[in-house]
């Protein structure tokens, strides 16, 4: 039997839902489990989805896979991992998120784009009027050259390249 399935059965016999730390502790001990975790997509919840759509399509230059500036959902082609926008949820998933303890910091997610040359992309976006939170700089401890900006909904975007 697959180890990941046995983990699921182990927890399904409990009366209460396991905490994140319980789930994480078991999953990191199981080498087979990690190979099943493949990031398939990133979905940003944006109250101003139409403005964000135009930003990612027209300013950042992403190819639209689905939707347009009038639809309540849009998806962009970004390689192996799908990137989508939708309005914040107002149903059960949002209620579940509201019950969790939030992080203490302002930003809880960053969208990271790997580029060939951070400085070139920085200059191209600046000429389109995009304000940057931090211009290109090296982070030797991570082995990257990075620059930071925000989308119209306030999400952090990192542009990076290896150094």
TrEMBL record:
One matching Pfam family: Glyoxalase
Domain VOC positions: 38-162
GO biological process, one term: L-methylmalonyl-CoA metabolic process
Family annotation (InterPro entries): Glyas_Bleomycin-R_OHBP_Dase, Glyas_Fos-R_dOase_dom, MMCE/EMCE_epimerase, VOC_core
Lineage top rank: taxon: Bacteria
Molecular function in Gene Ontology: metal ion binding; methylmalonyl-CoA epimerase activity
Range of residues in the leader sequence: none
Keywords, in A-Z order: Metal-binding
Record flagged with keyword Magnesium: no
Protein name: VOC family protein
Organism: Cohnella rhizosphaerae
């Amino acid at each position: 039997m697959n180890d990941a399935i046995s983990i699921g059965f182990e927890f399904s016999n409990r009366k209460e839902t396991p905490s994140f730390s319980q789930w994480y502790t078991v999953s990191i001990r199981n080498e087979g489990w990690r190979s099943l975790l493949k990031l398939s997509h990133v979905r940003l919840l944006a109250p101003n989805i139409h403005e964000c759509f135009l930003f990612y399509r027209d300013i950042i230059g992403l190819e639209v896979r689905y939707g347009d500036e009038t639809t309540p959902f849009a998806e962009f082609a970004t390689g192996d991992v799908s990137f989508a926008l939708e309005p914040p949820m107002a149903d059960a998933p949002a209620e579940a998120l509201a019950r969790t303890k939030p992080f203490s910091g302002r930003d809880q997610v960053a969208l990271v784009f790997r580029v060939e040359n951070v400085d070139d992309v920085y200059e191209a976006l600046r000429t389109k009027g995009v304000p940057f939170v931090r211009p290109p700089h090296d982070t030797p401890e991570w082995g990257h050259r990075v620059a930071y900006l925000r989308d119209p909904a306030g999400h952090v975007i990192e542009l990076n390249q290896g150094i």
